[in-house]
UniProtKB/TrEMBL annotation:
Organism of this sequence: Roridomyces roridus
Name of the molecule in the record: DUF6533 domain-containing protein
Key words, A-Z: Membrane, Transmembrane, Transmembrane helix
Residue ranges crossing the lipid bilayer per the database entry: 12-31, 51-70, 82-101, 113-132, 162-188, 209-230, 236-254
Top-level taxon: Eukaryota
InterPro entries attached to this UniProt entry: DUF6533
Cell inner membrane keyword on record: no
Keyword field contains Glycoprotein: no
DUF6533 domain sequence ranges: 17-62
Pfam entry (one): DUF6533
């Protein structure tokens, strides 16, 4: 290994460590969520949200395995990361689809909003796919030489090509910004009319906002790193963004369903007491906003 390879080696190793660290974090979070997942996901009937949750929760393990096998191959001399990158991007798209479904539910399944979300989702997805294709097909997307660096990885050698990758994250940031603005608008209108909404509805608004605030630093950091980071660190933020999307969205779903289960139990307890003591108590907890 020559002296010029040491900086690149260090950078690629840092990226590998970051990916391994976030995969460990994701594994730990998955284990912590087993009980809630069993109660509110596996025991529930099959719906689109349940399928999307399971994909979001377990697909990162598949992507990580493919990435490890690919990078550890002894003949790794050419970047063929198209499938891995698209697979990871598809996972982020699924998490955003869950956010779209939640927002669509908050707006009482408005058909006009559904049409708008249809164009938003496929516009962002189409632009991102174009950027990924352009980016990975570039001659400036190179594989590190394992004989000189000891690390099997891909990196960008041209800032202009890397700039194309920014399109993915900027479009992602814009799409999620639209979703959070719609949530804020609905929340302001709802609570200006009635501040005593049910807990499940309050949770839907609050959790959606906290999700955006939680993922925003990672997306912004990705954009900044793309401008200032050296070539070997160009991919340092991809794993954190994908993993944090999965973690936060999974928590959104289990927490919302947990709140719904508590309200159902509360309604049952009150009705049971009313029946036992001959009361005319009537409780109306609408399930229309449960996800």
């Amino acid at each position: 290994m020559d002296a010029q390879s040491y900086p690149l080696l260090s950078q690629l190793q840092v990226v590998s460590y970051i990916k391994a660290g976030f995969l460990a974090l994701f594994t730990y979070d998955t284990l912590l969520q087993i009980q809630q997942e069993y109660l509110y996901i596996w025991k529930a009937r099959w719906t689109l949200v349940k399928f999307l949750y399971l994909w979001t929760r377990y697909s990162p393990f598949i992507g990580a395995t493919i990435s490890v096998v690919h990078s550890s191959h002894p003949d790794f001399s050419k970047c063929n990361d198209m499938f891995t990158i698209v697979f990871g991007g598809f996972g982020i798209g699924i998490t955003d689809l869950i956010l779209i479904i939640r927002t669509y539910t908050l707006y009482e399944r408005s058909k006009r909003l559904l049409v708008f979300f249809f164009f938003l989702f496929f516009s962002v997805g189409g632009v991102s796919f174009w950027a990924i294709t352009k980016m990975t097909g570039s001659s400036h997307f190179r594989a590190s030489n394992t004989e000189t660096t000891g690390v099997a990885s891909c990196y960008f050698t041209d800032a202009g090509t890397l700039g194309i990758g920014l399109v993915c994250y900027i479009s992602l940031l814009a799409g999620e910004l639209v979703i959070i603005l719609l949530t804020l608008w609905k929340m302001c209108r709802k609570f200006s009319q009635d501040s005593s909404g049910p807990g499940i509805l309050t949770s839907l608004y609050r959790d959606g906002i906290w999700f955006y605030l939680g993922i925003l630093p990672f997306t912004i950091a990705t954009v900044i790193i793309s401008f200032i980071a050296p070539p070997g660190l160009s991919d340092i933020a991809s794993a954190p963004v994908a993993i944090m999307h999965s973690v936060l969205v999974c928590h959104l779903i289990t927490h919302t369903r947990g709140m719904a289960a508590k309200e159902d139990q509360l309604a049952y307890d009150i009705k049971e007491r009313a029946f036992r003591y001959g009361s005319d108590v009537v409780l109306d907890i609408s399930p229309e906003n449960k996800v």
